[in-house]
Amino acid sequence: MIILRSRAEIEKIRASCAVVAEILERLVEHIKPGVTTLDLNAISEELAVKKGAKPAFKGYHGYPYALCASVNEEVVHGMPSRHRRLKGGDIISLDFGVVMDGYFGDAALTVPVGQISESAVKLCTVTEECLYEGISKAVAGNRVSDISHAIQDYVEARGYSVVREFVGHGIGQHLHESPQVPNYGPPGRGVRLKPGMVLAIEPMINVGEPDVVVLEDQWTAVTRDRKLSAHFEHTIAVTDNGPRILTPRKNRFTKLYG
Ligand code: MF3
Ligand code: CO
To answer: Could you tell me the residue range of the domain that residue 221 belongs to?
Structure first.
């Protein structure tokens, strides 16, 4: 069942989303060689608590951390570790969510550690741009897979591949609600979008093959060919005036690092 959210509910989701967006911006300031992904997890948790927000991922299906920190070939659900120390040339996806007053927010971005390769810059740029392509189709009257198709089209035209195993999702009173929002597929399928629907759109894009495998920790997903992967996510609301991004960021990747 897909719940249409009232203005008051969207305001609550937006409040959680604002906390998520701010914490992600703060985490980015800490990204430098030598920092461990467990340090970043601690910072994210501390900041959430300060804001009176509860980290949404911790305890979700037994996930033990507040943050997902996925480095290089890690696609999503990278488990923070005191052994994973960032080094110059890495890219890291930071995926974070909170719940406040019963409503969830969820967002992710990928950032460079120091100087990164030209090909890593291109991957991150295409991944962020395809997210905005998808969001542009989150318009009342369209169908869910119009978002999916726009993302796939944009990505494959540029020679990259779309991860199939993980998808975007409805969000509201749970982290994951209906509908699923795949990042691939034919247009014109799935439910019709209506004002009040709130979706987390989150393409995961690979330089090489689309295939992923999950490591022995049962969480960390990596590319099977171990080539680079990037991930960007926004929570958005479908409104009478088009898509509204509830987790806005000040700058795009290209503006900052391109
Ligand atoms: N943004 C991811 C998602 O929506 C993060 C979930 S991590 C989990 O699936 F640990 F909570 F599962
Ligand atoms: Co999500």
So the answer is: 7-257
